[in-house]
Structure formats: structure tokens, C-alpha cells
Specification:
The protein is α/β, with parallel strands linked by helices. It is built from 17 helices and 12 strands. Pfam families: MM_CoA_mutase.
Length: 462
Amino acid sequence: MSARLFSDFSPSGKDAWEKQAEKELKGRLKTLSDWTIGADLHLAPYLTNSEIDPEKMAAMQACQKKSPGWQNVPVVKFSEPRKTNVGMKHALENGADAILLDLGSADVAHCEFPKLLHGIRLSDTAIYFQTAENTADVFKEISKNAGYYLKGGIASDPIAEWMRTGKHFIDNINAIVSVLDQTRNMREFRVYMVDGQLFHNNGASPVQELAMMISGIVNYVDLLTDKEISPLTAFNRTMFSLSVGPEFFAEIAKLRAFRFLLSKISDAYQLPRALCKPFLQVQTSSFYNANVAPNTNMIRGSSEAMSAVMGGCNALTVRPFDHPFREPNDFSERIARNVSSILAHESALAYVADPAAGSYTLEKMSLDMADKAWELFLDMEAKGGFIKCFETGFIQNALKASLAQKAKDLGEDKVMIGVNKFIEDADSSFFDEKDLHSSSYNLADKNLSQCFKASTLTASKP
């Protein structure tokens, strides 16, 4: 069958394809624009197998997730113990596989964990406790009467918290070491997080996100190994948290490139690849939501979620479409959970480990993005590493420049539905660039910048 099929169709190269495309597009082939991903990366609008190095493509594919599927992990915000417990149970009974429990600024001592976790067995259900509190204090409370094996983890990035607030991270590094020692056999319990939201929500390009995140994990591994934690434990027991934006193909490539870069980092520490199990918790972006057309966020979030699962996330968090401007209700939370459920059960994406493999454009995009990010990472290392780059303002300046470019693109020809095209409010004003220079890089409250919800970075030495 296969021999006859190929004998009926002669091979065709890129020239033949372009000739046919030129004919069908009636002379408009050259109007197809290049893929432009930030200021860092430009790709041709179409590619063939002749433009992909097969060995590099195989290396990229070898680093991807081997098991299909992902956890459906909605966010539940802590309010008071019993009410939050009801909310978590409701989500788990209606599509959720795990919970990202946002403790906010709640004091650990006042969370009343026996009430908060009533009827939820942490040995069966993964709960990720998102907090800026001391990791050891949180673990002490959640491990009481919880059995010998816990799933989930503590979604805390003390260095990102320092970058946001100036709060010193050294004590929490010691707390992470303590919890790692107590949970040596709990392979499904993540003790700390590398928070990519910090860079994404301050305007980073995909290349910058990747470079800064791998610089972040190198910093953590070095800090933890200095305290006699093995590099394999430090590498495997973290949760990498990333956001996916609306650039569909670029975000798929970003996640695939991230796994490739993590493999290079693990090789540098001489870790056996077969034992390295990076865990990617990916959430739909808060940065690009449109307040002026909130229902559009449902569609945008669905597209972003599809990028996340095709890129190989282990856990998917779909943010409710209304979360930027009000407390989500039962309807918006249910829709968010159902996005993940539909992708898993109706699209069949949960049956394939790496659905993007073999696409020439995605493979090339993943490889080029990884190369550019590696260059930036090495540049950061040459400048003294992650902490030093923040203290000197290198990271802040890079993010500010990227954010300025995003705003410029939106103000010119880049289309974002509900933000600068097909908008609902006819009286909305256009982007005012003076807002770019606010202390927090916050571009909210202007039509072309409604999607930008940047967070403040503060340079403060540990």
C-alpha cells in the first residue's frame, strides 16, 4: 500500500510548493508575513523538512513529556476554612483533578488546616498550597494527620517574592531544605516553585521567559546543593509555573523549548536524564485579558489552554474569564474547568504525549527559541547570574523594553480582539504611551493596554 501511494505522487520541494501557493493566492504569496516572536526571533511563514536538522529535531523530541494527559488544576482562593473546603470539594467533584489553593496573605496559624482539608486526603488528591509564608511552617500544618505520603506541594518562590517585595529569601531557603529532608520519599510532593508568572506579567517575550526561568532554577539548585541537597532532588522537587499567552504556536514552542533547555541544565549537573522529571504547571495568562470585552477572555483562554496541553504541561490551570476584575462566580469557574475537560475528553489531546512533534514550523520554532534563550541565559551567567542580574537592574530593564515593544505593536498593526479590534466600547481611547513609564509598568485603564496587568518589581538586596 505505502509503495503504491508514493509511486503515485512524485516528491515536491519548496519551490514547487511556493509556485502552487503563488497560483492559488493569486500573486499574494509575498504578503505572508514572517513569524515575529518578540524582538528576539523571526521565522519564515512556512517551512519544509529540508530546513530542519533531523538530529536536532530528534533531540528536541527526546526531551518532551513521555506520558500523555495532564491534571486539571483550578485555583481556589482561601477565604475562611469551611467555605474554602466546600469550594475545593465542589471543584474536585466537577472536573478538577487537583487544586491550586491560593492562601494569599493568610497567616498559616489562622488557616485551621483540619477544617480546611476536612474530607480531602492529601495522599490521594494533589493540593498545591500557593503562599509567601515560610515553607516549613506550611508543611508542618498540612502534614499533621496526613499520612506518610503526600501529593501536591507548596507553590512558593521566595526569590520571586523578594523580587516583588524586597522580603529576604534566605530563611525560606533554609525552610525548603528542611522540608526536602522530611519528604525524601514523597516524589509527587513539590517543595518549592520557580515562578515564571513574574516575568510573563512584566512583559517578557517568550525568549526572556525561558532564559530567566532556567537562570532561576540554576540559582535554586546552586543554593540548595550548597546546603547538601542533591542536585537531582533540587531539580525534581520543584514546580515550574508558566503562563501561556495568545500567540498560539509560539506558546506551544515555548513549552517544548523549555523542556529542551531543562535537559541541558540537567546535563550540566550530570544528572541521569531518565531520572529527571520536570513538572510544568501552566496557566492561562492574566496579562492579556481584556476588561473591555470580558467574554472574549473565554475564547482567548481556550486557545491558550490548547497551547499549554499541546506544549506538554503536566498541570493546567485555566483562569476564569472574569477573574481580573471581580471575584469569579460558579459559572465562570465551571467554564474554566470545562475547558480543560473538553480538551482532555473530547479533543483526544490527552491521548498523545507530544502532539506537536513532526510539525516543521513548530520544531524549527522550538529549536530557534531554545537557542536564543540559551544565549540570553549565558549572557546572564556572564553578568554574575540570576540574583546579580536583578540587583543591577538588567532583568528589569530587559522586561521594560519588551513591554514597551508589546505596547507599540498593539498601538500599530498587531490585532487583539476586544482590545484594539472589534471592541465593544466605541468611546474607548487609544493607547497613551506615557502610562508605560509608571513605576509598576502598569498599562491598565487604556483601550490598547487593557490586557496588560504588569506587577511591580523592586530591586532589593537579600
